[in-house]
Amino acid sequence: MAMMPGATNRLLANQARQGRMQSYDAAVLHTMVGSLAGTDSMFQKDGTVGTESHFGVGENGEICQWVDTAYTADANYLGSGHVISIETADYGGSFGRWNTNGDNVPYWNAKQIVAIVKILQWVHKTHGIPLRAMKSVTEKGVGYHAQGVPNNGLPASLRGTKYQWSKYPGKVCPGKKRISQIPEIVRLAQGNTAPTTQPAPEPATPKGVLGMTKRINAYRKKAQKATGTRHLMIDDKGNYTIATGPAEAVVSAKADISGLKKGEHGFLILAEVMYKKGQPTVISREIATVKVTANTVWSVAGAWALPKDHKGKSPRLRLIFKTSSKTATAHNVYISGVRD
Questions:
Q1: CA–CA distance, 98 with 77 (Å, rounded to integer)
Q2: Which site from 58, 134, 296, 333 is most exposed, i.e. has the minimal number of CB atoms within 10 Å?
Q3: CA torsion through residues 288, 117, 29, 69, sign
Q4: What is the mean pLDDT of each run of 10 residues along the chain (340 residues)?
């Protein structure tokens, strides 16, 4: 079985009738034109007799898994034996009601982006799907449904092959707004891969992508102590703060943790802290946490809104490592994200 840790188990009946995956070429993003609850109800009613996806992402970042990734899900038509499919909510709640005729799908929100990043990182680690945005349906990586749709992204020469992902011509799924977000989402997912050199400065994110306009990008290769409760430096200038409030942000953070002895562990945490010069810096909220149990690369991703200054203290986002180890060190700290 291949089940994603942290995903809600909503496995449909009769999984084995789907047949085994033939290869793992792509993770393909879809949009529901509905809610997670509504889509789950439809899938549970039809089981694997109808059309279903491997994963679903709700409005608030909930992740459910409908099909074990050892088996195919039918959302990508002739490509289903080669594609992990991810459906995403887009209607009602904070999305409101919108004209579902045409290309009107709203942007993915910050919580959904974090959920999608987690799924992409898991399918990369588990099935080897590359963390890169597909430019065409014949590449391997992260793609979107419309790339394999006749009379849209699919070249006529590829009709009837595994690259045809829909029997219905002209579909625009998941919509132009969400398609525009995919390169940034893939870049966030790549935070799980240690860069070999200092990342080059990048231009500001175009207005509207993820709803945010400023890019966060920091890298520190040099080793630093990671014992006790340690705020980690994020660059070679000795800075600790990733973002200062008030702000909304989506961030992926990565660190190589070494020096843990057998039986030791720690926690890599994205945390909101309250800072005032000359006073102890207090953790006010843990945004995302991962347990570190071995000497390897670990990453966390989170989305949140940092408040305004409070009682003379400045709310800041930091990367923290907690452990009882006396020998733990961190290096190759890499921060990637966007903020308003």
A1: 27
A2: 296
A3: negative
A4: 91 89 98 95 85 95 96 96 98 90 88 92 96 96 97 95 95 94 89 40 40 79 96 96 89 92 94 94 90 82 82 94 96 88
Domain ranges in the chain are 8-190, 195-339
Q: Options 3.30.420.40, 3.40.80.10, 3.20.20.70, 1.10.357.10; which CATH number does 8-190 get?
A: 3.40.80.10
Q: Which two tokens stand for residue 115?
A: 């959920």
Query: Two tokens at 244?
Result: 């200062």
**Contacts with 39 (C-beta within 8 Å, 6 or more apart), sequence order:** 32, 56, 87, 89
Cα–Cα distance list, 55 to 52, 177, 198 (Å)? 9, 21, 34
Greatest extent of the chain over all pairs of C-alpha atoms, in Å? 68
User: Which tokens sit at 92?
Assistant: 């009602």
Cβ neighbours of 101 (radius 10 Å) = 6
Residue 176 DSSP label = H
Q: Give 252's strand partners.
A: 301, 336
Question: Residue 205 — left, alpha, or beta (φ > 0 → left; ψ -120 to 50 → alpha)?
Answer: beta
**Measured between alpha carbons, how far is residue 46 from residues 11, 41, 42, 52, 192 in Å?**
12, 9, 6, 9, 37
Please count the other Cβ atoms lying within 10 Å of the Cβ belonging to residue 322: 21
CA dihedral of residues 256, 259, 262, 266 (deg, nearest 10): -60
Quote the pTM value. Answer: 0.74
Q: 195-339 sits in which CATH class?
A: mainly beta
